[in-house]
Amino acid sequence: MTVQLCDSRVHLHRRTLLQAGVGAGFLSSIAQRLAVADENNKKRRHLEGRHRPKNVILLWMEGGPSQLETFDPHPGSLTGGDVQAIKTSTEGLEISELLPQTAEMMHLTSLVRSVTTKEGDHERAVYNVKTGFRPDPTLKHPSIGAILCHADQRGGDIPRHVSILPGQWPSRGGYLGPALDAFQTGDPANPVPDITSSVSQPRLRRRIDDLQNIVDREFYRGRLSGIEQNRTLHRELTASAMTMMSSEQLDAFDVTSLPTSELEAFGDTPFGRGCLAATQLVQAGVRCVEVTLSGWDTHAANHSFHETKCATLDPALASLLKRLDEQDQLDNTLVVWAGEFGRTPRINPAEGRDHWPHGFSVLLAGCGIRAGHVMGKTAADPPADFNGDDLSKVVENPVGIEDLHATILHALDLEHDHELETSIGRPMKRSEGRILKELLA
Amino acid sequence: MALKKYAPTLRWAWLALVVLIAFGVLIAGLAKPRVPAANASVFPPPVSQLDPTSWKVASISDVDRWTDRIDRLWLADLDAKNLDPAPDADWLTLCRRLSLTLVGSGVSLEEIRDLETLPEHQRFSTHRERLLKDPRFHHYFGERWARILVGTDGGEFLAYRRRRFRTWLAGCFEQNWTHDRLVKQLITAEGIWTGNPEVNFLTATFDTGENQPDPVRLAARTSRAFLGLRIDCLQCHDDFLGNVALGDIHSPREGLQSDFHQLASFFTAAKSEGITGIYDGDVDYEFQYLDASETVKVPAKVPFQPELLPEEGDARDRLAAWITHPKNRQAARAAVHHYWALIYGQPLEAEVDDLPLDSDPHPMLDALADLFVESEFNVRDLIRVLTSIGPFQVGSRYDSGIEVTRVHERHMAVFPITRLRPEQVAGALTQAARVQTIDRDSTFLIQLLANTGINEFVTRYGDVGEDQFSDESGTITQRLLMMNGDMLRELAEHNPLMNTSAHVSMYQASHEKMVEALYLATLNRQPTAIESEHFASRLNEADDRNEMVEDITWVLMNSSEMAWNH
């Protein structure tokens, strides 16, 4: 392979220069030593990365993005709409012209174009995709982040499961308990919610003192033995909240002090800032960060809405992948891009596309996921009267959401078929799916 | 060219025309059940149109007699375990329990002052009777039962209206529908989900693209909500772990996969036909059992006591008659157990919807089921009995140095300490910040602020969803929200127009009286001597009295006691 020095996707990294074999020609000996040292450090971090805890960043596209306007365009077909396809850094792979920066990072990813579910209602579909299970009247299943945090209880001062810009249905702990619900926060341009006391420190200390030493003490007197330690955990939770309020790790939520160029690379939008914060949070010990970009439910004016949404998504997604790669964080950080379903191939009278769970795209990168790969295929011109009975009419190599979950859990070093004890005493596997070996490196 | 130019306009016009026609069809009343149901429900009228005399109220002697019977069982159990019941709770604590349970908030200062004008022995029963007639009770129980019946899932939007269903349930509680009437109405519902809201019990199970009620999900829901049996695992296989016992109630056998699907078969009679909604058709269920080579027709059969199932009639009518049969004691126990859990914040048995056929029922539960049947499933009478018996009246602590253990809680020697649900915490906080009761007579602004604040608070606090009786501790997010959140800050701050804290600061004669009023408004109890002395001293020493009142309010609202029932 010929390394193109002007290619923005590989750019002028010192590592790249070394790989190209041109470093010796114009780098000073000091620069060469620095470059070699840097390369050795990266190799060391790469090796260490295999033993570092695995994290996941979920880029959640609430509303259901169109596969045709994002990662699975069919230009020129009856259903293709106005979008054109462009080449990507993965040979033979073309994606929507609305994602030009992402196209340059596709060599880091696996693209699954044939995800299918049986849920076409937003809330049910969100549940299905986030948990890997269909809604069950008897049980609430945990999301991937909750499973990950449950499996490894180590933590710091800040919550290990975080949802930035949460949509209507942020990730939950399910039967693993509300303590594993995602901690919700907004645009990283703003302070973390509820983290700052509205009163002075001495006043806050006096309040806490009265709370714990007068009111709570009187309440606990004569009541259930060990009520504080075994039932309410009130003092412990208050202490944890106070620790978080003054923790330096909170800085990981803050991106406002970063250089403007970095913010602009991510698009300088709430979603872009969320993605940037996500990279800092996983380095600070957060195990799962969900960043939501809402507004994909384009029942009308599908194309123009996707133009707008992709303008936000593209720089953020591309820069996220790039930054994680440059920092060697992709070894231990899995990036998942997904929505609750795709959108119909047919364009409705309002120039929109409706809900379509019968073949839509999910993007994965990092944590041992095969790079530069595409799995599955959707029909360019599916039958107009398709009613969900025979998937082979619309999609090749269909991938069930449960299989995708099993694969994600495997990539995160979790046994996907490990049984957990549920609140109703019913053992339940983390995932009922099978690992998709095709997606593993 | 001209046509192409106007194509988008024509498309919009076409869409508008279709919407208009659909609306017209609905208005014209075409959306009626295909076959008028003999028991078609009447949507409950608003409160103003209700005749209070129509409420069936058991005589006091009945409630006393039933209470006495349950109390004897309770005391016998305590005696056998060598446990002493804790001293009775004071009337304020009892009224707080009632308010949290029945309307989802604490007692207002206005209500307390009003009750104080009555002789002490009348205060609790007066408060209870007022709450039972209060629209807040009807709507709160409507929401709680909606969670039991359809969960919290959104369902398919085009065929499911949760809010409508919840309002319909509120109407049922307003009119004191008997429990059997409610169950029958739900199982045999017909028509369209907007006109006959009970139909949403069925349409909540619509799966995308199939547009028919899901018999499997309805069987699972029915077995849990109405039969107190968890038979979900039988959906896929026979029971091989000894978890599910069915068949003869005197000598149950292991549950079979066919038990589940035969129950599901009843619901295949509920058909949906587009705009006319749900109607009654024939049972037509085929299923391929585990290890079977082909599908078979599955008849509609009940999992136990088949002798109670009417031989004639529509499938769903027969099922409803079987569940509500006075001799179906399992169903009566299941109903009573749900009400017990709603009132006490935790079930009497380990799980609210798991009363195995092969286990001896709890004696109190069994006796309560007797009474429920005897009262012809009168819900308000059941609530009266449940809140009159010793386990509800007893305190949650001993003053004599006895150490309270989980054994005391399990046998109800003390009232159990249970975590409040998020909306109860939000309701209690909001009510604590207002001197007057927040209800439908409150100003629009107060109601708006209360509802908006509660919704936002619950979202952030973390709605526990359908899992109503989990014994979880709190979370860091909840503590942060309570300590630093906008809602609590606004409720505690010195706001002379709105807040209790400001009214207390302005109008109470002494610092001791201020402390007392703050305790009554927030925790619904008198301060102890230690608390009164401490906070009065704080007020005496304060440079800014308003600020100190705000601090005390913050402390009380942030206390363990505020977030737990006791």
Task: Tell me the span between the first and last alpha carbons of chain B.
Answer: 76 Å
Biggest sheet character of chain B: 2 strands, antiparallel
**Could you give the count of β-strands of chain A?**
17
Radius of gyration of chain A: 24 Å
The tally of helices of chain A reads 13
The main β sheet of chain A shows up as:
9 strands, mixed
Task: Label this structure with key terms.
heterodimer; A: 441 residues; alpha/beta; nine-stranded mixed sheet; two-stranded antiparallel sheet; 34% helix; 16% strand; disordered N terminus; B: 566 residues; mainly alpha; two-stranded antiparallel ribbon; 27 helices; 8 strands
Would you give an account of this structure?
The complex is a heterodimer of chains A (441) and B (566). Chain A has 441 residues and is an alpha/beta fold. Chain A is built from 13 helices and 17 strands. Chain A has helices spanning 14-20, 23-26, 29-49, 100-103, 122-131, 144-151, 201-220, 227-232, 234-245, 260-265, 270-283, 302-326, 401-411, and strands at 55-62, 85-87, 94-96, 109-116, 161-164, 183-185, 288-294, 333-339, 342-343, 355-356, 358-365, 373-375, 377-378, 395-396, 399-400, 419-421, 427-429. The longest helix of chain A has 25 residues, at 302-326. Chain B has 566 residues and is mainly α. Chain B has helices spanning 2-5, 7-27, 60-80, 91-103, 109-115, 120-132, 135-150, 162-174, 179-187, 200-203, 215-225, 257-266, 315-323, 329-344, 363-374, 379-388, 390-393, 406-410, 422-432, 444-461, 476-484, 486-492, 500-507, 511-523, 529-541, 545-557, 560-563, and strands at 245-246, 253-254, 270-272, 278-280, 286-287, 296-297, 418-419, 564-565. In chain B, the strands form four sheets. In chain B, strands 1-2 form a two-stranded antiparallel ribbon. In chain B, strands 3-4 form a two-stranded antiparallel sheet. The N and C termini of chain B lie far apart (76 Å).
